[in-house]
Amino acid sequence: MGEKLASNQSISKLIHALGDVDSTVRQVACESLVGMARKAPTSGLMSELIDALDNVDPMVRKTACQLLGTMGEKVATGQSISKIIDALDNSDPMVRTTACRVLGNMGEKLASNQSISKLIHALDDVDSTVREGACQALRDMARKAPTSELISKLIQALGGVDSTVRQGACEAFGDMARKAPTNELISTLIHALGDVDSAVRQDACEALVDMARKAPTNELISKIIDALDDVDLMVRKTACQLLGTMGEKLATDRSISKLIHALGDVDSTVRQSACEALGDMGEKAATKEVIRGVNAALRDDNVIVCSSAMRALKKIGDQAATPLFFSELVVGFQFQRVDIHLNICKILRKMGKKAATSKVISTLVSALDGNNSDVRDAICETLKSMNEIEGTGQVINTLRVVAGDENPQVRESVCVLLGIIGQQNATIPLIRVLIQSLADQNENVRKSACESLKNISRSAAGSEVIEGLVITLRDKNFQVRMLACEALKNMGEKAANAAVINELVNAVEDENTDVRKSALDALSKISKSAAVIGIFRTLAIALDDENPYVWKSAREMLDSYAEEDTTDEFIAELCTALAHNSPDVRKSVCEALGNIGAERATPELINGLMNALQDENADVRNSACASFGRLGEKAANAEVINALLLTIVDEDLDVSLSAAEALGMMGKEVATSKVIRELIVRFSGTSARKWLKNCVQKLLNFFCDTCKVEDASIMTTNGTMNIRKGSGEQFSLTAEL
């Protein structure tokens, strides 16, 4: 019904209903009044709502305030404004809060000295919701109508004693400055940076940062730079932070110069902020003056400033890793301060290979001599991270001296550095330092020395090195022993002497699996052309090792010898190993004998395999049969054939099949009626009949090119096999043949 019902009487009734005890009644009354306020905000409605602000019922007063706010500037008359301003003094915090919000929504018409003063006063209200409402109202006014009266009152508020009031004023200033930054607003916010209350400073800082990011005007930049000279240290500190936040955008000659000056500020927090700001300015700040200034900050008495300087130098180096940067950085080694040296090393270490300039390396090497033990350790670690060091006489001589350092970490790092240098130029003095380190009392030093010798072993396989490594094979640390094996392995046949082989043979019985495997690998590389009797004992032990990796290495080594090093001595040792108590060893030896090849099938080898055909272990017998098959016709004498025929009746079908397969691979000597008969008798009644057909066919081919074995399915149980010649003639081959 809207406007037709909007009489004073109906409005009064609805307003009265706002205080009803029934929530449904209150809700309906409120919705009706809201509808009226939106559609037809008459003077009568406005008058009734204004009167309702004095109602004794707090719910009525609150809702009346909200309705007036809904009507906004439409009801912004002198009377309504006065009533709403008066509502800020109401005893009910809900009414005061609502009044704040209404004032904020009414725009420029309410931006009077009286309303602004009341809102600023409300910033100090005992109720937090009222304070929030007043702050929001001032911010709304500032966005909509930043009048001179509002600005004047807010400036006064910034000088007030209550921090909440100052914070609210600062937030309002921030909103105005973001919308339309002026010198007056910027100056006011910068002044607020020195407030004793952190919340005020934070609001001012955030406003300035937003302004600088959106539109870094010359006026704004100039004001922030000027703030670096402010008498208030908080202003100076925050100005530094603002410049750093903007990074390269504010990296002008003037701002950089001011920040360098701030590095000498009497307050440590300002110096810290200046370091961080310069670090955030990127490549533009990578000047000699900046690097020297921040480098000097590494010597600051305040630990936090030192840390900030270190981070800043790292950032500058990431952006501009120039020779100038590194040259200026290492100047810090001229000062006799451990903390500076350690900080420089940290920066260089993070830069890695980029820092490997001749100036840096020479400075670091020189600093090794006569410095603190911790610094020497840091320098060594830094040089290691660069992985590029030229092994000049001066460098090697310095490292030789430092190799006697009391700190084991330093000695360990020296060994690593020598290994890096040695990969390019393994000089005798360098190698001797590493050899001496093999006897170091610290196991980590010995490990590093071994590791380095391993890495340069191909060019450092001299007698001194070999002797040192042989002794190291008995080191109490298993990792040292393992590395010694690996170093000897890399030397190959250059290390092939009796002492080396004997020690490696002993190492195959080491208590540690990794050492045993490494010893075997070393033997396989060293002794192919220097085989001695002991090595076969070693292989036998390794072939029986419980660790699969050791066993695999031994097996590969054995096969390698069998294929390449077939001396009579080697064959004799293998045949001796056929008597080993481990079936795994005997099986592996049989396979190795078969891999030697027909050309080297000596009588001793054949006799050894024949004996293995009678082994108690089926796998060994099977392996012996397979080896005879690989030897082929060279092993086909009557004694071998008879031995295989006896094996055909082995209780293990797999062994029987292997024996028959071996006979089938021995050529014409085996293609006799006796052999064929034995095959038919053994397999005609088994699941291997189909295989038998193929085997017999191979033998028949040696004396009857046109003989064809018929389908194995026609084989009878009494051992008869039907054969067809090429002419079509068919005959039977039986066990009685």
Model description:
By secondary structure, the chain is mostly helical. Among the domains are: 217-320, Leucine-rich Repeat Variant, CATH 1.25.10; 689-737, no CATH class. A three-stranded antiparallel beta sheet has the order 1-2-3. Helix 35 (603-612) runs antiparallel to helix 36. The N and C termini lie far apart (126 Å). Residues 32-239, 448-663 form the TOG domain. HEAT repeats lie at residues 430-467.
Task: Tell me briefly what this model is.
The protein has 40 helices and three strands. By secondary structure, the protein is mainly alpha-helical.
List keywords for this structure.
single chain; 737 residues; mainly alpha; Leucine-rich Repeat Variant; 3-stranded antiparallel beta sheet; 3 strands; elongated; disordered N terminus; repeat; oxidoreductase activity; HEAT_type_2; PBS_lyase_HEAT
Largest sheet: 3 strands, antiparallel
Per DSSP E runs of 2 or more residues, the count of β-strands stands at: 3
Q: What's the CATH C level of one domain?
A: Mainly Alpha
What's the CATH superfamily of one domain, by name? Leucine-rich Repeat Variant
Poorly predicted residue ranges: 1-5, 529-534, 706-717, 725-732
Distance between the termini: 126 Å
Radius of gyration, whole Å: 49 Å
